[in-house]
Amino acid sequence: MRLRDTRIRVAVALAAAAAVVAQLGGCAQTPITGKARGVGDIDAGTAAGIPVDNNGPSGPKQGVPDADIPFEGGDGGEMDRLAINALDDIYAYWSEKMPADFDGQKFTPIERLVSYDSDGKAEKLCGQSTKNLVNAFYCSQDDSVAWDRGVLLPMLDKQFGPMSVVAVLAHEMGHAVQFRLGAKSNISQATPTIVKEQQGGFFRWVAEGKAKHFDINAGTGLNHVLATMFFIRDPAGLSASKQGAHGLAFDRVFAFQAGFSEGPTRCARMDTDEINGRIQEKERNDTEVEKSDEGNVDPTEDDVQELLKKSLDEAFGSAQDKPGITYDGADCPSGTATPPVSYCADTNTVTVDPEAVKKIATPPKRGQEPGVDGAGIGDFAAFAEIASRYTLSVQKSYGGELDGVKTGLRTACLTGAWARYTDTDTDNTRRLRLAVGDLDEAVAELLQDNSLIAADVQGKQIPSGFARVEAFRIGFFEGDKGCTEGFSG
Q1: Domain spans, the chain
Q2: pTM for this one?
């Protein structure tokens, strides 16, 4: 987040990890448009209707013969085997979906598949040298899909697992499908890059058990794919109107869920007007995007703590008996503690472990996965943890239960509503304000196994990470009115 006063001090959220990784991405999610929704419309135990099973398989299937698709290059290694098996499943998906969803049009395989090593001998592909080209891409000039088996694929596999490789190739194949569909995909030469990058769809088909070579469960498996959007987002502050812009994680997860929920025709309906209406990172001035010495705001500073309390009190002004917030540990004299932050209902107090939230607020280093092996996420992730426990007091004041799935959904939703409040700029008074990339940190924290943003007073998360993000998004776009359904239930 950033501090706003007459001097406009800035705390900028973390930029994307590697520039090349920001070039990649997945696609598939549902914009919240039309009639208002409430948390009662969300099934917390499913991902768009597919039951969550955290113990279900995710990754390459065992005992399945490898695909036999001709391709150029290659070293006979594991990365090429993974890529070709992924492409075989993606071919099967589009062979089924393209004629079914696009007026009988048949899918034709890619003319040229190429494996290369960006660390090896330079080749010419799509008019560019492969030397240091850590990437995967579709080239319409010769209808080719190429991937870097030497650096990119091993890096993705090591950091995020083999399904991240599948996601990248599914994304590039999505571009090939756009090229084949032409006007049916709402794409033309004049279409901005960001629209092209948010179309696609494939993972629901895998989650339904239809893929030959891969499985993914709708719980932790899908959560991990969604969480990788934090790393394949655009650098914070890159305008969505710029050529080459792909979108931030908040926007790309949005697109991912649309395709997962509704299929390729939903992706094809995405156009410039829709993207402009929902993309959260648009134009930012230089002051807002440059890094200051302050970096992320430190949630343990006294003045920041006061500003956070003021922000929450103002955002939920109609709630009675606003809670106190203390920073001397996350214990509760009675009731269940949920470190690093707890809500003690008996005393109407939010208790915070300052060192633990400061750790969350520390951005991960390049190449680190957020929240894994001691890595933090960013200041907004820490603030959202505290805000989530504050919203339990809000729910209590309206007669809401503090235990159970509905509570977890309302908590995520109300935290999103607070995030929207911090994005308003009504005056020049000193206050906390949403900074570039903060919503990406919210997505990353929501998908952590131990996050409180979508948890009840006992710290029990709602099962579906898919539903957690959806509830947060409802609050962000619709405010607390989108969260109030079922407050007394």
Answers
A1: 2-14+296-482, 21-234+238-278
A2: 0.80
